[in-house]
Amino acid sequence: MPSEDDATSTLRVMTWNVRDLRGDPLAVHRVLRSAHADVVCLQEAPRTWLSRNRIADLARRAGMLYVTGGRASGGTALLARVRVDVSRPSAVRLPVAGRFTRPRGAVSAVVALPGTRPVLVVGVHLGLDDAERADHVARVLEHVRSVGLPAVVAGDLNEPPGGPSWQALGAVVADPAADDGLPTFPARRPRHRIDVVLVDPVLDVLGHGSPDGVDPGDVLLASDHLPVAATVRLLR
Protein backbone atom coordinates (compact mmCIF):
# COMPACT_ATOMS: atom_id res chain seq x y z
CA MET A 1 0.00 0.00 0.00
CA PRO A 2 1.49 3.42 -0.96
CA SER A 3 2.77 5.46 1.96
CA GLU A 4 1.76 9.04 2.65
CA ASP A 5 5.25 10.05 1.56
CA ASP A 6 4.71 8.34 -1.81
CA ALA A 7 1.40 10.14 -2.30
CA THR A 8 2.89 13.57 -1.68
CA SER A 9 5.91 13.02 -3.93
CA THR A 10 4.15 11.32 -6.86
CA LEU A 11 3.56 13.32 -10.04
CA ARG A 12 1.40 12.13 -12.94
CA VAL A 13 2.25 13.65 -16.33
CA MET A 14 -0.06 13.07 -19.29
CA THR A 15 0.27 13.87 -22.98
CA TRP A 16 -2.63 14.05 -25.43
CA ASN A 17 -3.15 15.28 -28.96
CA VAL A 18 -6.67 16.77 -28.87
CA ARG A 19 -7.09 17.20 -32.66
CA ASP A 20 -7.81 20.94 -32.60
CA LEU A 21 -10.76 20.25 -30.27
CA ARG A 22 -12.81 19.08 -33.26
CA GLY A 23 -14.25 16.20 -31.25
CA ASP A 24 -16.94 16.21 -28.58
CA PRO A 25 -15.91 19.02 -26.18
CA LEU A 26 -17.66 17.40 -23.23
CA ALA A 27 -15.76 14.17 -23.87
CA VAL A 28 -12.49 16.15 -23.85
CA HIS A 29 -13.40 17.62 -20.45
CA ARG A 30 -14.37 14.22 -19.05
CA VAL A 31 -11.12 12.59 -20.18
CA LEU A 32 -9.00 15.35 -18.67
CA ARG A 33 -10.92 15.24 -15.38
CA SER A 34 -10.96 11.46 -15.03
CA ALA A 35 -7.25 11.07 -15.86
CA HIS A 36 -6.34 12.89 -12.61
CA ALA A 37 -3.05 14.08 -14.11
CA ASP A 38 -1.04 16.70 -12.27
CA VAL A 39 0.47 18.09 -15.47
CA VAL A 40 -1.01 17.74 -18.96
CA CYS A 41 0.89 18.41 -22.18
CA LEU A 42 -1.50 19.05 -25.08
CA GLN A 43 -0.86 18.99 -28.80
CA GLU A 44 -3.17 20.46 -31.45
CA ALA A 45 -4.71 22.74 -28.85
CA PRO A 46 -6.24 26.06 -29.99
CA ARG A 47 -3.73 28.34 -31.73
CA THR A 48 -5.79 31.32 -32.90
CA TRP A 49 -5.65 34.87 -31.52
CA LEU A 50 -8.02 33.83 -28.71
CA SER A 51 -6.22 30.58 -27.96
CA ARG A 52 -5.13 31.61 -24.48
CA ASN A 53 -8.75 32.18 -23.42
CA ARG A 54 -9.95 28.94 -24.99
CA ILE A 55 -7.22 26.85 -23.36
CA ALA A 56 -7.78 28.55 -20.00
CA ASP A 57 -11.47 27.70 -20.27
CA LEU A 58 -10.62 24.10 -21.17
CA ALA A 59 -8.31 23.88 -18.15
CA ARG A 60 -10.98 25.31 -15.84
CA ARG A 61 -13.58 22.80 -17.04
CA ALA A 62 -11.06 20.02 -16.42
CA GLY A 63 -10.34 21.24 -12.89
CA MET A 64 -6.88 22.49 -13.85
CA LEU A 65 -5.01 25.72 -14.47
CA TYR A 66 -3.65 27.06 -17.75
CA VAL A 67 0.15 27.42 -17.55
CA THR A 68 1.34 28.36 -21.02
CA GLY A 69 1.01 27.67 -24.73
CA GLY A 70 -1.42 28.13 -27.58
CA ARG A 71 -0.66 30.46 -30.46
CA ALA A 72 2.82 31.21 -29.14
CA SER A 73 3.81 27.54 -29.36
CA GLY A 74 1.99 26.33 -32.45
CA GLY A 75 -0.84 24.65 -30.58
CA THR A 76 1.06 22.96 -27.77
CA ALA A 77 -0.08 23.80 -24.25
CA LEU A 78 0.64 23.00 -20.62
CA LEU A 79 -1.98 22.58 -17.88
CA ALA A 80 -1.41 21.85 -14.19
CA ARG A 81 -3.35 21.13 -11.03
CA VAL A 82 -3.38 23.65 -8.24
CA ARG A 83 -1.30 21.38 -5.96
CA VAL A 84 1.66 21.68 -8.34
CA ASP A 85 4.20 24.46 -7.85
CA VAL A 86 4.90 25.87 -11.32
CA SER A 87 7.63 28.31 -12.35
CA ARG A 88 9.58 29.42 -15.42
CA PRO A 89 6.89 28.68 -18.04
CA SER A 90 8.07 28.78 -21.65
CA ALA A 91 6.31 28.50 -25.00
CA VAL A 92 8.11 28.49 -28.36
CA ARG A 93 7.36 27.71 -31.97
CA LEU A 94 9.58 25.19 -33.69
CA PRO A 95 10.49 26.19 -37.26
CA VAL A 96 8.75 24.49 -40.18
CA ALA A 97 9.20 24.82 -43.92
CA GLY A 98 6.42 26.26 -46.02
CA ARG A 99 3.81 28.87 -45.34
CA PHE A 100 0.99 26.33 -45.08
CA THR A 101 2.81 23.71 -43.02
CA ARG A 102 1.15 23.04 -39.70
CA PRO A 103 2.90 24.94 -36.88
CA ARG A 104 4.91 22.92 -34.38
CA GLY A 105 6.03 23.93 -30.94
CA ALA A 106 7.17 23.16 -27.43
CA VAL A 107 6.07 24.24 -23.97
CA SER A 108 7.83 23.74 -20.67
CA ALA A 109 7.75 24.63 -17.00
CA VAL A 110 9.66 23.79 -13.86
CA VAL A 111 7.32 21.92 -11.53
CA ALA A 112 7.48 20.53 -8.01
CA LEU A 113 5.30 19.26 -5.20
CA PRO A 114 5.66 20.45 -1.60
CA GLY A 115 8.88 19.03 -0.20
CA THR A 116 10.21 17.69 -3.50
CA ARG A 117 13.00 18.76 -5.81
CA PRO A 118 11.84 20.44 -9.03
CA VAL A 119 11.79 18.80 -12.45
CA LEU A 120 11.43 20.23 -15.93
CA VAL A 121 8.34 19.11 -17.86
CA VAL A 122 8.49 19.66 -21.62
CA GLY A 123 5.58 19.14 -24.00
CA VAL A 124 6.40 18.79 -27.71
CA HIS A 125 4.74 18.30 -31.07
CA LEU A 126 7.36 17.36 -33.64
CA GLY A 127 7.07 17.79 -37.40
CA LEU A 128 6.29 15.23 -40.10
CA ASP A 129 9.53 15.85 -42.00
CA ASP A 130 12.64 13.94 -40.88
CA ALA A 131 14.95 16.95 -41.08
CA GLU A 132 12.48 19.16 -39.22
CA ARG A 133 12.14 16.59 -36.42
CA ALA A 134 15.91 16.41 -36.06
CA ASP A 135 16.08 20.19 -35.72
CA HIS A 136 13.17 20.27 -33.28
CA VAL A 137 14.73 17.63 -31.04
CA ALA A 138 18.07 19.44 -31.05
CA ARG A 139 16.33 22.60 -29.83
CA VAL A 140 14.45 20.70 -27.13
CA LEU A 141 17.64 19.05 -25.90
CA GLU A 142 19.43 22.40 -25.80
CA HIS A 143 16.64 23.77 -23.62
CA VAL A 144 16.63 20.76 -21.29
CA ARG A 145 20.38 20.94 -20.80
CA SER A 146 20.31 24.70 -20.22
CA VAL A 147 17.80 24.28 -17.37
CA GLY A 148 19.89 21.55 -15.78
CA LEU A 149 17.10 19.68 -13.96
CA PRO A 150 15.77 16.13 -14.29
CA ALA A 151 13.32 16.20 -17.17
CA VAL A 152 10.09 14.65 -18.36
CA VAL A 153 9.52 15.07 -22.11
CA ALA A 154 6.00 14.29 -23.30
CA GLY A 155 4.30 14.67 -26.62
CA ASP A 156 3.46 13.57 -30.13
CA LEU A 157 6.77 12.67 -31.76
CA ASN A 158 5.28 11.71 -35.14
CA GLU A 159 7.81 8.90 -35.26
CA PRO A 160 7.87 5.26 -34.07
CA PRO A 161 10.17 3.99 -31.31
CA GLY A 162 13.75 3.47 -32.41
CA GLY A 163 13.64 6.42 -34.79
CA PRO A 164 16.26 9.19 -34.75
CA SER A 165 14.19 11.48 -32.52
CA TRP A 166 13.69 8.78 -29.88
CA GLN A 167 17.39 7.95 -29.99
CA ALA A 168 18.45 11.59 -29.65
CA LEU A 169 16.06 12.24 -26.76
CA GLY A 170 17.46 9.10 -25.12
CA ALA A 171 20.53 11.15 -24.18
CA VAL A 172 18.49 12.79 -21.40
CA VAL A 173 15.23 10.83 -20.97
CA ALA A 174 14.28 7.16 -21.21
CA ASP A 175 11.24 5.29 -22.50
CA PRO A 176 9.51 3.67 -19.50
CA ALA A 177 7.62 1.30 -21.79
CA ALA A 178 10.38 0.36 -24.20
CA ASP A 179 9.43 -3.32 -24.02
CA ASP A 180 5.65 -3.14 -23.78
CA GLY A 181 4.48 0.24 -25.06
CA LEU A 182 1.13 0.18 -26.85
CA PRO A 183 0.28 1.99 -30.12
CA THR A 184 -1.51 5.31 -29.72
CA PHE A 185 -2.65 6.32 -33.23
CA PRO A 186 -5.19 6.25 -34.75
CA ALA A 187 -7.31 5.92 -31.65
CA ARG A 188 -9.96 3.60 -33.13
CA ARG A 189 -7.46 1.08 -34.47
CA PRO A 190 -4.07 2.01 -33.02
CA ARG A 191 -1.12 0.93 -35.15
CA HIS A 192 1.57 3.51 -34.43
CA ARG A 193 3.19 4.39 -31.12
CA ILE A 194 3.95 8.08 -31.60
CA ASP A 195 2.66 9.58 -28.32
CA VAL A 196 4.86 9.05 -25.27
CA VAL A 197 6.05 10.31 -21.89
CA LEU A 198 9.83 9.99 -21.57
CA VAL A 199 11.39 10.26 -18.11
CA ASP A 200 14.86 11.07 -16.75
CA PRO A 201 16.41 7.83 -15.45
CA VAL A 202 17.04 9.40 -12.01
CA LEU A 203 13.26 9.41 -11.43
CA ASP A 204 11.37 6.24 -10.51
CA VAL A 205 8.48 5.47 -12.86
CA LEU A 206 5.60 3.90 -10.93
CA GLY A 207 3.28 3.47 -13.89
CA HIS A 208 3.08 4.23 -17.61
CA GLY A 209 0.44 3.83 -20.30
CA SER A 210 -3.23 4.60 -20.70
CA PRO A 211 -4.36 6.69 -17.71
CA ASP A 212 -6.51 4.79 -15.23
CA GLY A 213 -10.12 5.86 -14.89
CA VAL A 214 -10.53 7.22 -18.41
CA ASP A 215 -13.52 6.01 -20.42
CA PRO A 216 -12.26 4.65 -23.77
CA GLY A 217 -15.52 5.74 -25.38
CA ASP A 218 -14.88 9.33 -24.35
CA VAL A 219 -11.38 9.17 -25.84
CA LEU A 220 -12.81 8.08 -29.20
CA LEU A 221 -15.40 10.86 -29.11
CA ALA A 222 -12.73 13.44 -28.29
CA SER A 223 -9.69 12.73 -30.47
CA ASP A 224 -7.90 10.48 -32.93
CA HIS A 225 -4.98 9.97 -30.50
CA LEU A 226 -4.91 7.99 -27.26
CA PRO A 227 -3.69 9.79 -24.14
CA VAL A 228 -0.57 8.49 -22.39
CA ALA A 229 0.42 9.11 -18.78
CA ALA A 230 3.43 8.36 -16.59
CA THR A 231 3.44 8.43 -12.80
CA VAL A 232 6.85 9.33 -11.40
CA ARG A 233 8.23 9.69 -7.88
CA LEU A 234 9.98 13.02 -7.46
CA LEU A 235 13.17 13.32 -5.45
CA ARG A 236 12.95 14.75 -1.95
Strand order of the largest sheet: 3-4-2-1-11-10
* Total DSSP E strands: 11
Can you summarize the main beta sheet?
A: 6 strands, mixed
Can you write the helix and strand succession as a string?
HEHEHEEEEEHEHEEHE
End-to-end separation in angstroms reads: 20 Å
Pick out the low-confidence regions: none
How would you state the average pLDDT, rounded? 95
Helical content class:
25-40%
What is the subunit arrangement here? single chain
Structural class: alpha+beta
Any idea what the radius of gyration is?
A: 16 Å
Gross morphology is globular
Output the number of helix runs: 6
β-strand amount: 25-35%
Description:
By secondary structure, this protein is α+β, with helices and mostly antiparallel strands. The protein is built from six helices and eleven strands. The protein has helices at 4-9, 25-35, 51-61, 130-147, 164-169, 216-222, and strands spanning 10-17, 39-43, 65-69, 77-80, 85-94, 104-112, 119-125, 151-156, 195-199, 204-209, 228-233. The chain has a six-stranded mixed β-sheet. A five-stranded mixed β-sheet has the order 5-6-7-8-9, with helices on one face. The mean pLDDT is 95.
Helix/strand layout:
Blueprint: H1 4-9, E1 10-17, H2 25-35, E2 39-43, H3 51-61, E3 65-69, E4 77-80, E5 85-94, E6 104-112, E7 119-125, H4 130-147, E8 151-156, H5 164-169, E9 195-199, E10 204-209, H6 216-222, E11 228-233
Helix pairs in contact: 2-6
